[in-house]
Structures
1.
Amino acid sequence: MTDEIHPLARGFDAAADAYERGRPGYPPDAVARLVEMLGLRPGRAVLDLGAGTGKMTRLLVPSGARVVAVEPVPGMRAKLAATAPGAEVLDGTAEMLPLANGSVDGVVVAQAFHWFDAVRALSEVHRVLRPGGSLVLAYNLRDESVPWVRRMGELIETTTGGEAPSQHHGWRDGVARCGLFEPLETHEFRHVHRLTMEGVVDRVASISTVAAAEPAARAALLADLRVVLASDADTAGRDEIDLPYTTLLHVASRRSLEPGSAGLVISVNQNAGGVPKPPVDGARILRKGLDGDGHHGPLHGAERDAVCLYPQEAIERVREDGHQAFPGAYGENLTLLGIDWAGLVEGDRLALGDAGDGPLLELTQPAAPCQAQARWFTGARIARISHAVHPEDARWYARVLCEGDVVPGTAVRLLPRG
């Protein structure tokens, strides 16, 4: 888990020109739907995250909304600034957004979410979105029902061992492990990108795995592609070639809960020990903690500190102070949303699940920060999550009164005292 860009994505620095020439934009009906769903208009603000050369950015500017475009790759960012002069262009990553809490009304990620560390990115998107805001993940997928397009895909697969992670690296699994957003709703559109033969070659050259391939292998792939285009009945001898796509808009609304006595588990985190604890699909909570989870340190392993808890609201406050914070960063097992953290005291009980037969936890003591977390804090100031200094932003330990299962999205209730 890192705030550095994916190693393959660095290849876009040298491929920015080919990307701009060969990649499609987005169909007008899809953009119109996106603008409508996010309510983009003067007085509103939208973030285009992982904006690349501005293929989506330039289409958002006419909405009249303030458009902020964040792109970490220098070569792509230079193109972005040139092609979308109406946008505010910033250097940054999805895992550490250079924006204030609650500063935008919508976030768009076009052809880029698969590059992100999903839980960190979603935590940051939740932080910068205002209540009521939404996230849109836009993808153009080539229509490989067309024979020459399918053959092109086979050449890419044979040469590189697989295209970029958009279809193969499980980004949907990462989304499913985070309960900060409502489930994705998908809208589908048809799209055709008209290119010259060399434009199609640029389209393939701009693919991350192709850009990162050995020069000889890349040159051979592009030569084979030219042979396909020169011989296929649908492309041979044509000045312009229609490359068909399906455009998908995956839309998720931000979960916004007022702090109180009812909330949600938004991430279940575990590993063999140490920090950060990455998110998992779910776990069974046993008397001594999550099944399969481990702890480091002499204080851990007893039943009274079986489960460590932390709120998303604290993550967002700590991030606004300039430190790194995300679900699992500080070693908590359950990241929660919607519980009034500042009011918690020893002995408070949290019931998980809707049916009344889920896990039951009892708070035992605040968890003191340790040097294992120091790397996340500017100046190693771990006291930022100390209960003595910031009780609203400190972790809590809990014992397990009733065992049971937990998954992201599980309901949480703070039971009445006494």
2.
Amino acid sequence: MRLQLDFLFIRDVRFAAETAIHDGVLYVDKGALQALLLEDRRFASVDVEIAHPGEECRITAVLDVIEPRAKTSDGDEDFPGAVGAQVPAGTGSTCVLKGAAIVLSDYRERTESGRSTDPNGDIIDMAGPGAEAGLFGKTHNIVLLPIPAEGVNGQEYLAAFKIAGLKAAAYLARAGIGATPDRTEVMELPPLIARDGTTGNLPRVVYIFQILTTQFDPIPGEPILYGRNVPDMVPTLLHPNEVIDGAVTSQLPALNVQTFQVQNHPIIRELCARHGKDLFFAGVIASTAPNNMADIERISNIAANLARYVGADGAVLTKTGGGAPELTMARTAQRCERFGIKTALAILHMAADVYGAATLFNMPEVDAIVSLGVPNTQLTLPAMKRIVGRRRVVPDMPPIDGEIKRTEGGIKGGQCQVGSFRLRAVRY
């Protein structure tokens, strides 16, 4: 499969009478975008705002972040199953607006979504230490702020909101179709059966990627894999290009991994770059993280057997969510190790406190673990002149436009379950 990514570097975003891209500036027809999103009758209204890097601005109640992308080749569909028709993802060409992002901000009066103890939820700061800590303080952000229609419940709103974000991402990226890209990248891997003089003797590596956890109630109608929620999915082999090209989106509530980070998945991109050099990338095993031991054993067995079936010599594993996903990942790794498949785990220590990192398992076979940090370190963030999103005022808590404290995990893009963030650990 061959996928060509055509990057247009966006250095500014402005509202205008027509959606277009000129000289690195994305012009957005706000009315046209609103009309597109209001075709979904689950919304009573949708506002759109723009936030720029360096601006004294704070975005509240952020649910997800999506990079604008659109297919440019005939026969392909944008975010198949969610926006476009059901066709295979991962081939043809895709226009990518690098430097821009669609931000989903929960604009309901009351919300149970998110994991923050502050009702203003996870945030993005466009200036100050929060912007330095998070990825999305450096992108030009188009923020969607929808209000649900009367009678629409919370799950219906969230499912509609995810689809709206994907629609907006495709709509804006289509403005770049036909433009000369600033940079082009090709991702191409051969079929698994292809062994030649350059790859035949290299170790085969698979990536076991948890895309969904059932520790949260799955949202009916939310697109996770090819436009569907997949809580009962068994481990499934995907071509890496499918993940990069919109077949997979992040689950709501997204615990330290956004759709933007899935689209730019650093582990997949690294394994693709090393294919044919020091390893043979044998594909992505998409999996889930159940919330009970019987299903944890079931999923772990199937994933490990699938890795063995494709001839894997090694496996890289990541998780999504907190406790049950970590146990599922560890059990899967243990099964792989017993089959002779060497494993390496990357863990964001959701169970740890501010003073250290912890794991929820102790398995002698699982001895190669990369720490992605602890999401509980607190930062003091300065007051901001502008707030984008609903302000939720709570007694005995500082106002959201004033000086506040947030953990790194409460800043969208501050940390990431798949390793896509700006901070790194240094050993002194």
3.
Amino acid sequence: MANLYPEPNPISMIPFAGLLLTIAIAPLILPEQWHKHYAKVCAAFAAITVSYYVIALHSGARVVHAGFEYASFIIVVGAFFVTAAGIHLQVRGRATPAHNTGFLLAGALLGNLFGTAGASMLLIRPWIALNRNRFAPFHTAFFIFVVSNIGGVLLPIGPPLLLGYLIGVPFWWVAQRCWLPWSVTLGAVLIIFYVFDRLNYRNASRHIGPPLGEKWQCAGSGNFVVMAAMLACLILAPAGWRELFITVIAIAAYWLTPSEIRQRNEFSFAPLKEIAWIFFGIFGTLIPVLDYMKRHAGDLGLQSDLQFYWTTGALSALLDNAPAYLTFLAGALGLHGWSIDDAQHISEFIARHGRSLIAISLGATFFGALTYIGNGPNLLVKAIAEHAGVKTPGFFGYIFKFALPVLIPIFVLVALLFFR
């Protein structure tokens, strides 16, 4: 196979590693400095890689290709994020364990339809309100497990699966092949949550009394129709046109939605701005990683679907699931002499080695829940919960008290059932 672009020097992957480590560590140890300067940091790392490709490799076309992919990605993510902010759920009363479990199940479904960032933003405040008299750290953890991560497994509305769709993975492909492991994982997590919440409710109900039977209200429900229209464009419209249609629809919905609805949601463009800059850096610095993985994936010793499941998952948990997904997808294609930049190669790979893509997809989406830094919405949920004055687990408490003991046994079960 003739490669479309020149082979980069392995040293050129250092900015990618540096950026991911910075994204992982800086918000934890230098939060104020990070929020002031993250745009400059991401742009600087990307500039190093882009300069190398343009000046040293004379491959500006490769940079332009990555730029179009980034633009398409951020338009889709931004449109669903902004439109979800135009829906406000007002909840009253107090939820029983059964109600809470049903709420999380609905959140998992909405995570597929709105993207995990949009669903997390829409539902975290109602979740806090429902449990305001007995909110515990595990409520934050399980919300992140289900809504912010497991909820993004089936449809490519947000990262990481949106990245696959934009390069040629069919829209419904993952849903058709991952619904069973998704159901097993979601069911197991919800059962464990019910046990946690039942114990919490039993202790708290002595002090807060029975739940009240007040009605829920939904403002801005017309935006559900808007999201359905954007989803139809994402599925049916060709590249280029779909981004245009989605942008026009999202802008129209933003201006037609009463601003007080977004005010009730405490909406801000700040999270979207941060996501846009972070992924600007990721798309820029990821170029040599993908190009190198195409040619040298076999050197890593990755052969089996089980290996792709665990290695993709490990990188997703430690750094971020979107670059992990693209990196190992490029590697899996490279093992067979195919390129991630060629839609025909992706089609052949899916037809012959689809189980590898299933493993990579599940590893990226599931394992992002293991840490706060594994997926963008995780930190968003934590920040909103802390702003609301409720208890949230600390960085290591989240990992060792909740994520590892709850999720790892379930992930092992998935590996045994589907990749053994």
